Amino acid sequence: MNVTREVIVDLLPLYLAGEASPASRALVESYLKTDPELARQIRVQWAQNLKTIGGSGLPPELELRSLQRTRRLLSRQRWLFGFALFLAAFGLSFQFSTWNGHLVQWHFMFRDYPVPFGGCLFASVICWIGYFWVRLRVRRIGL
User: Fold this and answer.
1) Parallel/antiparallel/unpaired status of strands 102-108 and 94-99
2) Which of 34, 36, 87, 114 could form a disulfide with 124 if both were Cys (CB 3.0 to 4.6 A apart)?
């Protein structure tokens, strides 16, 4: 099948917008390999569109994967913060008991239950490290 330059030019808006079907995209790309002048013009046009529109210029499926990955990262950051805060508070918790309205005993977790306190402290430190590591990644990508 002989494809003319006019057909390719008609397909270019869809190709540049990333909305062309895979078959149309393959057709345009194979034609661009045979016509380097048109390929150069398209690269220049693409660069100008990115400057004027400010778009990402990424294919929609890549943008969607990036958005999903960012959402997972932010969700992971929230969960790590919550677990770290809960475990730290639980490790520093205390209990007191009364009898007939009088204070009888205080039970501090770190004093009276050292093994669970150590486990909570260790788990809390791990969660805090994970939280700050994810936070660093989030800051690095500019969110």
Assistant:
1) antiparallel
2) 87
Rounded Cα distance between 129 and 16, Å, is 43
Which 3 state secondary structure label does DSSP give 143? Answer: coil
Same domain assignment for residues 73 and 22: no
Q: What is the pLDDT of residues 6-40, one digit of tens each?
A: 888 888 888 877 788 888 888 888 888 888 888 88
State the total domains in the chain.
2
Q: What is the reported pTM?
A: 0.52
Residues 80 and 129 occupy one common structural domain: yes
The answer to whether residues 14 and 20 touch, using CB atoms and an 8 Å cutoff, is yes
Which residues, in sequence order, are CB contacts of 105 under 8 Å at separation 6+?
96, 97
Instruction: Note whether 139 and 74 are within 8 A (CB).
Output: no
Residue range(s) defining the domain that contains residue 43: 5-53
pLDDT tens digits, one per residue of 78-116 = 999 999 999 998 888 877 777 777 777 777 787 787 888
Of 3, 12, 4, whose CA–CA distance to 39 is shortest?
A: 12
